[in-house]
């Protein structure tokens, strides 16, 4: 019958692995115990072939090598190691990153700003500009004949407050009444 | 692990790991290269045994030493850097384990490569290769914890204390796991009579085949 099974397990494993953690006294005690315990004797006797089979099976794999060079580790670590040793080496990198971010933000703002339709802009934020020069040119009559006639009618409508009947409609190929000279409005000068 | 000066240019460095770590911390790249060449193959084999993929194993070597390089300021190896490196390598390897159902036969290929250079009749070489494959397949059948202990001892040559440091558990637990793994392997390997392994005593009918108690001490390796 196997006594102190857990302790036996540990001792057997250590025994089979070369007794590197098994003292001489423990080893003698284990051997003495195995002489009277069938299970432990069986485990020790058949543990050795298993141990040998494992050593033989792993022997070819123990010769397996690789040709990796330490340069791959340096590549994997990168320039971070140099920056860690000297903090001043981080300064150009910081400014480089800052320039990258600035360019990125600028391009983004440009793209977003140019994609906005001016009509969609809120008009409340824009104050209408008032220009005396623009007012002056608006008051000037246009140079084209048709535009002049249209402008004249508009100006006449503006000046209707001073004229009794400003309407002048053609009827039957002639005007219903003779044209009259209109009162001159502000800036309404005939050619 | 003995350095191979013939293959590794920086392996002739006789400084201890402690000295090499302190030299590498001061920017001595040759010291770091010496550490790399000293433990490169062991970490590669460990990664290969767990992931079964040579390219993954190479990545594990690079990542392990990259982590060691970043942790140089914190590393305080008492005697050997090996347990620390192997622990990192084990953690990295388990992130790259092959998925279930994916069959990779890199270990078998390695066995074939080694056996191609062996002397003997072709039938003997083939028989040995078959036995080795059977043993490795039995190791693959073990659970991850037990398999790791077996690989660390039989492939990487770590002793129980170093295995305990790598795995992060007491030495007694390592012994127990190893005992359990050997018992399981014995059950598997007993199917091959060429290996000379008897089935477990509990499997034999009582009275039919009683094992003899050992009368002489089992020879211990190294004595």
State the oligomer. heterodimer
Question: How many extended strands of chain A?
Answer: 2
- What are the segments of chain B in which pLDDT stays under 50 over at least 5 consecutive residues? 1-6, 101-106, 204-223
Tell me which protein chains meet in the greatest interface and how many residues each side has.
Answer: A-B, 57 and 73 residues
Structural class of chain B: mainly alpha
- DSSP helix count of chain A? 8
Largest sheet of chain B: none
Largest sheet of chain A: 2 strands, antiparallel
Pairing-aware structural class of the strands and helices of chain A?
A: mainly alpha
| General form of chain B | elongated
Strand content of chain A: under 5%
Number of DSSP strand runs of chain B: 0
The whole-angstrom Rg of chain A is 53 Å
**From N to C, what is the helix and strand string of chain A?**
HHHHHHHHEE
Proportion of residues in helical segments of chain A? 55-70%
What's the gyration radius of chain B in Å?
20 Å
> pLDDT average of chain B, as an integer?
75
What is the tally of helical segments of chain B? 9
Q: Note the beta-strand portion of chain B.
A: under 5%
Low-confidence stretches of chain A: 1-5
Helix content of chain B: 55-70%
